[in-house]
Amino acid sequence: MLNFKPRAYFLDLDGTFLDLPKTENRVSEDNINIARQLNDQGIPVILSTGRRNSEFVVNLANKINSPYIVCQNGGLIVDSNNNVLKKCEIKRDSALKVIEILKKEKMFFMINSLPIIYGASTKIFMARPWTKKMEIKKYDEIPQISNVTKILTFGKFSTRGIKKIKESLEANFFNLKFHIVSKGWSIEINDMNATKGIANSYICQLLNIDPKKAVHFGDSGNDVSVKSYVGAFVVMKNAARNIKKHGDIIGYSYKRSGVAKTIKNLFMTKK
Questions:
Q1: Which of 49, 100, 162, 196 could form a Cys-Cys staple with 13, CB 3.0–4.6 A?
Q2: Are residues 127 and 214 in the same domain?
Q3: What Cα–Cα distance (Å) separates residue 77 from each residue in 49, 61, 68, 189, 202?
Q4: Domain presence at residue 168
Q5: How confident is the model at residue 271 (pLDDT cuts 50, 70, 90)?
Q6: Looking at the domain assignment, is residue 271 inside a domain?
Q7: Of 191, 207, 231, which one is at a domain's C-terminal end?
Q8: Distance between CA atoms of 191 and 118, rounded to whole angstroms?
Q9: Domain of residue 227, CATH code
Q10: What pLDDT is attached to residue 151?
């Protein structure tokens, strides 16, 4: 258990805070209420996600009265009015080289979390539900590359194939960070200075809070970076085994208000 009372909470979205992903609201009232209650009490609850600063994400932050949002794993940090506070872009030459490798591997990829998937084909095998909402274009329709903060790629027939590509990219791009997500089926690519750990620490500085008095809730590879920055990494029970081993605390499964249950049962009773 923790030896401190959290002064700030950072919450991943998919697989963590968004406990009703198949519904229109995507998040339960219990999760919303606990986050808003803490913010209103002066204990900041900050969304820390791989998603972009979309209307949905900004509206959700405002719904819980959160002052800041960590987007794209720290590639972009905004305030509650969607004003950009910090941006960590992938160098253009690196982005171009990575994309060329992905094209050779016939991978699908998205740039800056925009709702467009680029691929060698417009047909996606093993399509996940979220891909059905996306526009799919071929490689020759890729726009001029600039201001890239994140690349998400997928498209291998096995998680072993995804891991092999990640290892190859890591060996060639020391200035980038690579996180395996989506239960091993996707890779997120950011600048080396764009991690949730660095971003959470930056937010704590803005809030005048010791990051070692903060906790981060998450379930994926991009959440592990918080380990050396915040006081505790709370891993959701639904996380993969290789993520759980990094956790300081194992919380409830994200489903059915898992974040709210974890906060109430593990933290709100601490004096």
A1: 49
A2: no
A3: 10, 13, 7, 16, 9
A4: yes
A5: very low
A6: no
A7: 191
A8: 21
A9: 3.40.50.1000
A10: 98
Tell whether the model's pLDDT for residue 215 goes beyond 70: yes
Q: How far apart are CA 165 and CA 104, in angstroms?
A: 11
pLDDT of residue 78: 98
Same structural domain for residues 84 and 23?
yes
Beta strands per DSSP E along the chain: 8-11, 45-48, 68-71, 76-79, 84-87, 108-111, 116-119, 135-138, 151-154, 176-181, 186-191, 214-218, 232-235, 249-250
Q: What is the pLDDT of residues 5-47, one digit of tens each?
A: 999 999 999 999 999 998 889 999 999 999 999 999 999 999 9
- Are 219 and 236 members of one domain? yes
**Residue 57 lies in domain:** 8-88+194-266
What is the number of structural domains in the chain? 2
Boundary-marking domain end, from 170, 191, 212: 191
Residue 75: partners with Cβ closer than 8 Å, 6 or more residues away: 87, 88, 89, 149, 150, 190, 191, 194
CA 238 centroid distance within chain: 16
The torsion angle over the Cα atoms of residues 79, 81, 85 and 86, rounded to 10 degrees, is: 80
pTM of the prediction? 0.93
- For residues 57-93, one letter each, b for 16 or more C-beta atoms within 10 angstroms of the residue's C-beta and e for the rest, the string is bbebbeebebbbbbbbbbbbbbeeeeeeebbbbbeee
